[in-house]
Each structure stands twice: as C-alpha cells, then as structure tokens.
Amino acid sequence: MMKKILLILFCIPIALLVLICLISQIVPDKPPKDFLIVHNFVDLKQMDNISKYRSCAGHRNMPQYTQEPNSSAKHYMQSNVRRDSGEKVKIFAPFDGYIVHPLSQGVTLVPASSKFPWWPFNQWRFNVEPVHTLPQYGGIVNKVKAGDLIGYFSDDRYKGDPQPFGDLDIVVGVTAIPPQFKDGNGEPWKRMESVFNYMSDEVFAEYKAAIPGLEDRKDLTVPLSWRKVHPCTYRAGGGPYFDIGKPEDLSIEEQNVYLGVNIKDLETIKKRTIVGPGGVPEVGKVCDYLNNRFNLDGKTPLICAKQDNKMIWTYGEN
C-alpha cells in the first residue's frame, strides 16, 4: 500500500508538468486590442541604434521549431549613455497593464485585459532586458499605467566588460515550455513578432522623426527574401552568436540589416565612427566600440581592441 502511495505522489507532479507543457503550446493568433504600445518605452534621446527584426545582430533568438533561416527575432536598442556617466537609461510602461515577474533578467508586461496576469503562458507579453524595476514593482503582479517610469537599464550584465554602452533586448511574443535548445541557445518563445507591429501611430511617429528615411513599420524588419539570399552565419566554433565580418566592408543596406538603423542618421559606419574621448584615433588612445575600425587615408587600419581590461586603438590588418 505504501509503495502505491509513494508511486502516486511521484507521478502526480510529473503528470502536472506534462499537462502544463501541453497547455503552454496553445498560442493565441493575435494579442488583445489593448496590447498596443501607446507610450514609448524608452526616451529616444538616450538611444543611438536599433536593430531590425530578423537581423543578424547579436545571436540566434527565434520562435521554437521555426523553419525560417537563422536570425534574431528581437530588437536590440543600443544606448548612447555611457555606463560610467552616472546617467540612468529610463524604461517606461508602454501600455496600461501589469508588470509580472519575467522569465529572465528584465521586465515583462501584459495588458490590463489579462484575466490571469501572473500566468506565464498562453498570452502575449512585452519583454525588455536587462532592467532593474523600481522597488514598488517588486510583487508578483504590479499594476501600471502607460507612461509610468518602471525602471532603469541594468548594468549587471556588463560587469567586467569595457564596452562603454549597453544594449536593451526588446521582445514581443508568447512563451512556452519546454524551451527549444538549438545552436547553443535556449529558445523560450513559441511566438515572436516585431514590437513595431503593436505600436500606435503616434508612438511610431517618434521613430519616424528620429530615423531619417523611415516611412513604414516593415522597414524595421528584414524581409524573408533577403534572409534567404543572405543567411546569417555563426562565429567560428558555431552558434549562437553571429559573425558579420568587418563592419566597414558592408554596404549601407547590409549595415542596416546586420548592425541596425542609426537613430540619428543613415550614414555609413565610417561616417558615424565614435572614436571616444581621445579624438582622432591613434594607437594607444582610448576607444569606445569594441571591434570598431578606423582607416584614415588608406593607411594601416586601427581597430578598437580590449587590452588589460581597457579598450584602446591598436593596429589591425589591411
């Protein structure tokens, strides 16, 4: 009798886990009507660059078991605020709803219409990381209004990294378990879409004003036709991180695909090189962007490299 009881006690949690996994696979085709970004979640004055949806920026991050070419189905937003400046990068609530405990370091929101905001599956979520939420949002479910200041960019991810600027990861989608593990990355998202698909015209107008040439939301998504002809490739040794080669060798179109669209302008990376506090690049001077290159008058190029936990200009290869 005791063995049967122990067997039942052992099987019940396994059966519940299997049931939750099966239930989590149910994904609504569309989010509710109030899943709409009516307030910008960042101050664009604090941003320098945003990657396109389905780009080769960063690393592989895709919906589970997708058959599409490898890419990143999130947007990366690079801040122009130096991490050592003391200035905080602000994060705002994009709509009326709830902050819920995210599945990773950051902040996750569901809309006000959610009947079970604490439930991590079967509903569309807005996720941004790395973020430290304000103390008043420390509960399991926290009600917010669109435009509320909810937190700041978190520097924890970059400790020990000399890169002076940080990235925000922006994801819109639905999670499911178990995650798919492929090419060195765990994929918790069953469905992923561009954040610009669920943004009001008024908020999108802010991006149009900040990015010259931007007219349509689809301009911030890399078309499938392009991805099939120009597949993302991994760094030596395999995934999940992509290798884009030498940035200055890319055409303007390729820069926009692989590196992202500059908030300030759409010039080439050569013209928007940031050389850091040292002015014109010279060997030994401090530089800002790791692996950034600078070639003046056809001379041997300089590359921004990490040395002794600092980033300085060194000689590169022609």
Structure description:
The chain is of the alpha+beta class and 318 residues long. It folds into two domains: 34-272, no CATH class; 274-318, no CATH class. It contains four helices and 15 strands. The protein has helices at residues 2-24, 201-210, 224-229, 252-258, and strands spanning 47-50, 75-79, 90-92, 97-100, 107-111, 125-129, 131-133, 141-144, 149-153, 167-182, 185-193, 261-262, 293-294, 302-307, 310-315. The strands form three sheets. Strands 1, 2, 4, 5, 6, 8, 10, 11 and 12 form a nine-stranded antiparallel β-sheet that branches. Strands 3-9-7 form a three-stranded antiparallel β-sheet, with no helix packed on it. Strands 13-14-15 form a three-stranded antiparallel β-sheet, with no helix packed on it. A hairpin with a 2-residue loop joins strand 10 and strand 11 (185-193). It starts with a helix and ends with a strand. The model is unreliable at 265-279 (pLDDT under 50).
